[in-house]
Every structure is written in C-alpha cells, then in structure tokens.
C-alpha cells in the first residue's frame, strides 16, 4: 500500500468517526423513509403508465374488431351483389386487420402480465415501507428516550459533583463557626476570671479598688449609726411617755 493510499484510508477512517459522532440516527431514518416513499411513487407511476398503455391497446383492439366486422359485412354484401372482386378486397383487408388484432392482443397480454407483476411489487413495497415506518418511529422513540435518560444522568452527575463541593463548603463553614464559638466562650471565661483586661479600657487598678471598698465601708458605717440614733430616740420617747 502506497503512502497516498494509507493517507486516504486514515482520512476516511477519521471522517467516518466524525460523521458517526455527529450523525443523528433519527434524521438518517427519516431520510431513508423519504427515499423509500420516492421509490414507491415511481413504482406506482410505472403501474399507472402500464395500465394506461394497456387501456389504449384495448381501445385500439376494440376499434379494429369493429372494422373487421364491418369489412366482413361489406364482403357479404358485395358477394350478394355479384361483386366478387369487391368481396375479395374486403376480405383481404379484413385479413390484414385480423393479423393486426392478433399482434395487439399479444402485446396486450404482455402488458397485462407486466401490470399485474408491477401491481404486486408495488403492494409488497408499500407493505415494506409501512413496516419500515413503524420500525422507524419505534427506533426514534427509543433513541429519544435513551437520549433524554442520558442527559438526565449527565445532569444528575453534574449536580452530584456540585453538591459534593457545596457539602464540603458547608462543612468548612460549620467547622469555622464552631471554632469561632469556642474562641468566644473561652474569652468570656477569661474575662470573667479577670485573666484578661476589659477591652473597653475601663479596668480598675488596686488603689481604685481599695478606695471604692473604703467608701463602701464608710457608707455602711454611716447607715448603721443613723439606724442606732433612730432606735435610741425611739426608746427615749417611749420612757418619757
């Protein structure tokens, strides 16, 4: 095999692969059905043409038969009128017509046989075309269902992949949220224990705390002295009465 032949073979192989990939079997089936319908129409036209020719021959034979009968009558009339010469001429012409009629009848028989064969062929072809149409629609419906199923599966596969990514993102968000909540709880505990300063900047030093404690104690003592004075005044009043 030469270089050019190998190149041609490789090119055809790749071209066929591309065509098979891009080819829609439904379109191929519809195209094949249309071609079969065209062939069926041609066969039907052939049957119609043969039938027309047969009918034309039948009419021609009928006309010649009438002429033959007329010549026979003319021959009898001429013979009755003692015109044997005219009677002979009429019979000669009748004989010629008889030969023509025989030839036409042979052609007519052949046309009738051909018409019958074409009619049977047309009926068989029509049955095959109808069977192909039914099978075509079945295959198309099956292919469409398979195509839809494939698209659904592909879409589902894509969604599943995306959902997997979404699930991972959600898990990461939940983990970060839990971590943030844990950090916030830990800071609250440290703030409550005093391990951390108040972030507002309002933390108190030891002197302030001691002054506030002394002020609180002084206030308590003042309140206690006031209560004692009130009780002493009440007792003195009671004795005086």
State the share of residues found in helices, binned by percent: over 70%
| Percentage of β-strand residues | under 5%
Figure out the total of helices. Answer: 4
Going by CATH, the architecture of the largest domain would be Orthogonal Bundle
**Using only CA atoms, what is the Rg?**
60 Å
CATH class category label of the largest domain: Mainly Alpha
Q: From the 3D structure, determine the CATH topology of the largest domain.
A: Helix Hairpins
Unreliable residue stretches: none
Kindly name the structural category.
mainly alpha
Total count of domains: 2
Output mean pLDDT: 79
Distance from N terminus to C terminus (CA atoms, Å) equals 147 Å
How would you characterize this protein structure?
The protein is 92% helix and 0% strand. The chain has 2 domains: 3-172, Helix Hairpins; 205-241. The chain is mostly helical. It is rod-shaped and about 200 Å long.
SSE blueprint and pairings:
Layout: H1 3-22, H2 25-80, H3 84-193, H4 206-240
Helix pairs in contact: 2-3
Short description:
This protein is mainly α. It is 92% helix and 0% strand.
Characteristic terms for this protein:
single chain, about 240 residues, mainly alpha, Helix Hairpins
């Amino acid at each position: 095999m030469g270089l050019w032949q190998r190149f041609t073979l490789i090119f055809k192989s790749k071209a066929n692969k591309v065509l098979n990939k891009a080819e829609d079997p439904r379109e191929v089936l519809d195209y094949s059905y249309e071609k079969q319908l065209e062939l069926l129409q041609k066969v039907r036209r052939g049957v119609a043409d043969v039938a027309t020719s047969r009918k034309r021959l039948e009419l021609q034979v009928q006309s010649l038969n009438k002429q033959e009968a007329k010549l026979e009558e003319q021959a009898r009339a001429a013979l009755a009128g003692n015109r044997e010469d005219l009677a002979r001429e009429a019979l000669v012409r009748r004989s010629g017509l008889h030969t023509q009629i025989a030839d036409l009848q042979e052609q007519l028989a052949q046309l009738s046989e051909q018409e019958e064969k074409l009619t049977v062929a047309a009926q068989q072809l029509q049955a095959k075309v109808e069977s192909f149409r039914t099978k075509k629609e079945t295959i198309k419906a099956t292919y469409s269902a398979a195509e839809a199923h494939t698209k659904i599966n592909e879409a589902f596969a894509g969604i599943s992949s995306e959902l997997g990514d979404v699930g991972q993102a959600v898990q990461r968000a939940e983990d970060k949220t839990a971590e943030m909540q844990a950090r916030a709880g830990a800071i609250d505990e440290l703030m409550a224990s005093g391990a951390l300063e108040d972030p507002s900047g309002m933390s108190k030093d030891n002197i302030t705390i001691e002054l506030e404690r002394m002020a609180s104690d002084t206030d308590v003592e003042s309140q206690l002295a006031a209560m004692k004075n009130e009780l002493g005044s009440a007792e003195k009043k009671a004795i005086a009465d």
